[in-house]
Structures are given as structure tokens and as C-alpha cells.
Amino acid sequence: xxxxxxxxxxxxxxxxxxxxxxxxxxxxxxxxxxxxxxxxxxxxxxxxxxxxxxxxxxxxxxxxxxxxxxxxxxxxxxxxxxxxxxxxxxxxxxxxxxxxxxxxxxxxxxxxxxxxxxxxxxxxxxxxxxxxxxxxxxxxxxxxxxxxxxxxxxxxxxxxxxx
Length: 163
Known about the structure:
The protein is of the alpha+beta class. It is built from 2 helices and 9 strands; from the N terminus they run H-H-E-E-E-E-E-E-E-E-E. The strands form 2 sheets. It has a 5-stranded mixed β-sheet, with helices on one face. A 4-stranded antiparallel β-sheet has the order 2-9-4-7, with no helix packed on it. Strand 5 and strand 6 form a beta hairpin. Helix 1 packs across helix 2. The radius of gyration is 16 Å and the shape is globular.
């Protein structure tokens, strides 16, 4: 079996899936009235976004068609890590990602969607303080990584601002 062919096909599926997400976001089809992260996978995999299966299987998607959006989610076990693809539709760009209504100490890291997954910022305030990361408004989509500090579990709301 030629592994180069598989790699090319995997890359094509990933680009196709990202283009579909972009199209759906731009037209508002991917957005519900009250988005929820209830079905976020519990596998803790870092979303590689190099295939449709990686994106679909490893993270939930939150799309905003306006200047802000929020959804509920939770860290349910001491080893749970949530990866959420945050997308601003149209010409808007992500300028802030935040965690609200924490019942325990959970932290937030915001990463780029490129292959390097470059960290754009993090917030580790401690306790039940809201976490917030402002990013340069140059990205239409970012990945929010949410995790409990020292095994903390908590429900939370994830909010985004698009400019």
C-alpha cells in the first residue's frame, strides 16, 4: 500500500471538511439558537484537523453569526480535556474566548488552527474566576482547549467575541 496516496487523500478530506464548515458558518446553517457542547467527545485527543474524521471525532464546533455567542459544556472527569473549534462567520474574526460560571478551577488555552497549533494565549487565574483570552483579530477560527487544574471538574459556559 502506498502511504503517500493515503496522506494525500487524508489531506484532501481535511481541506474539504474545513471548506464545508466555512461555507456552513458563512450561511448560518451550522448554528442553532442555543448552541451546546453536551456532545463534546470524551476522548481528549488533540484535534489534528488533517482529516474530516479528526475534526469531527475530536472536537465540538461553536459558530457565531453575530458579534458574540456562548454555549454550555463541562469537564466531567479529572482527565477530561475539551477541544472546541470556535468559528466567526462571514468577515468577522475571533477577538476573545472566555470561560464563565465556573464551579472549580479550570483553565483555557487558545490555539491556532494551523498544523503547528500555535498557542495564541492562555488564562490560568485559579479558583472560580472567569478565564479570558484576547487574541489578535486575525483568525476566523481558533481552537479552545479547556482542562481542569489538578484534576478539577466543573461545568462552564464558553463565550466568544467576534469583531
